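Input set for joint prediction.
Command: fold jointly, output tokens.
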Amino acid sequence: EAGVTQFPSHSVIEKGQTVTLRCDPISGHDNLYWYRRVMGKEIKFLLHFVKESKQDESGMPNNRFLAERTGGTYSTLKVQPAELEDSGVYFCASNSLAPRAGEVDEQYFGPGTRLTVT
Amino acid sequence: GDSVTQMEGPVTLSEEAFLTINCTYTATGYPSLFWYVQYPGEGLQLLLKATKADDKGSNKGFEATYRKETTSFHLEKGSVQVSDSAVYFCALRLSGGYQKVTFGTGTKLQVIP
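tokens >
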């Protein structure tokens, strides 16, 4: 069973450009979360999808960030236009409230996308 | 709001030394507590967890006990190995698997031979 995957692993863009990060959750997981770690600080929650609906987007920093999850499968997080303070590692996580055998209901995290804005 | 405070790093230890990484929390309600680990070049992995007071989570020789009276969840290991070098995050989550996870700042551990 594949884990949570994220693409790209690393992105370097200039200030003002647009970047789109992608997250593929574990198959069958209705819940999908985005988090980010900025400049070695704590990992902070951004938002939570249940299937294709945004359940909680209280952590989204501003309207330059747009998250989508069309069809309730993979999700994208677009930053437009990117600013220097957006640099950091963006993590995606998923879980199911009805875990299969061998799973738990805890959130499974992906490897993260390292975003560098210059 | 909910928060997690963990000791600053980096922490450098010799192989076979005893490890303690302190973690305290503030939360409304009764959270579940976690330690996550990020090895170099890899994603976050759940290391251990405890869901109620006095529970002890353990995995790979690491242990942490949920202390409600001191609102703490310190991570310990009796004898660290070079392969334990990683960043360790203390975290909490309120009841319900759909709740967001609140993390500490992370503590980088380097174990030298």
